[in-house]
Amino acid sequence: MNHHQHSSSGQIALDELAGGIDLQLTLASGQSYRWRRRDGRLFEAPAGHPTPWYETVADGTVICIRQHDDHLEYFGSDGVKEHVESLLRLDDDLSSILEAGPDEPIYREAVATHRGMRLVRDSLYVSLISFICSTQMHVERIHQMVQSLMSEVGTTHHLDGRAYHAFPTPTELAACATATLRGCGLGYRAPYVKRTADRIVKGGIPADATDGPYEQRREALTVFHGVGPKVADCALLFGAGELEAVPLDRWIQRAISAYFPDCDGDDYAATSRLIRERLGPYPGYAQTYLFHYLRTNGGLEDASATGGN
DNA sequence: CGCCAGGCTAGCG
DNA sequence: CGCTAGCATGGC
Prior knowledge:
Elements: E1 7-13, H1 23-27, E2 36-37, E3 54-58, E4 61-67, E5 71-77, H2 80-87, H3 94-99, H4 105-114, H5 124-132, H6 139-152, E6 156-159, E7 162-165, H7 170-174, H8 178-183, H9 190-203, H10 207-210, H11 214-221, H12 229-239, H13 250-259, H14 268-278, H15 283-297
Antiparallel strand pairs: 1-5, 2-3, 3-4, 4-5, 6-7
The chain binds a DNA duplex (13 and 12 nucleotides) through helix 6, helix 12 and helix 13.
């Protein structure tokens, strides 16, 4: 299949992107796990520019992209440019979004350290399965699991003699034996993924999970096995462009006790409301900066000790 | 070796 | 309802 696809390529000047972009940071910050770096070392910073190629397949379109000093270079099958713009949220005015964030020292440190990280825009389905895999797991290993699902179960596309793997469709996942999914490293999450894929094949994603108020959509997504409020928030933020969503994972919970103790509510929904009020007009963006900063810079070590002020 | 990782489910009281 | 043991797996 996909025999002679037309290829397409081009450039996007960085000064056309308000706030610029750090491609490596954006694709290796634990938001999307569908990207493969061609040198196989996604989580090591590249030596310089141009960066290695990053590649994936979305909606049957092969997408390759790398960063130069003053532009992004893309290459792939027809429609690659539109997919790049959408997947990397190139329409976001990053400088305005980051500036509008909360006037909190920990947030400003995170932005100063990781400026250029954009949110991604995957599909709800891809994010849902990816984050079902994410529970009790390191970011690096989530990436291994998803990459394994793509290469073992997903459809292989070819462009100019090179092979690219797509994220498996619900039908492809549902057709897998649980043992196959365990073979991809999913562990106890294998039956969660299988049952969720089965359900999507039979009934799709319910309408109240894709339309309506944010909190209702988060609740609606929990009908899927292996999906609680945190996984639902990740799916909505990274897979449905819901910038209101603030996934309350261990790191953010710790940040709340250390920096925003008054936002510690009685349950997930209550804490979510309190912290969202605190994080400015784009809570999901602020959360992603905090998460990445705390996870990679040990930003909580000294904070809990110096309680005073 | 024991602990931890972008939590959730099931089974208790 | 609220509470929590158990869950697979690999890296440190």
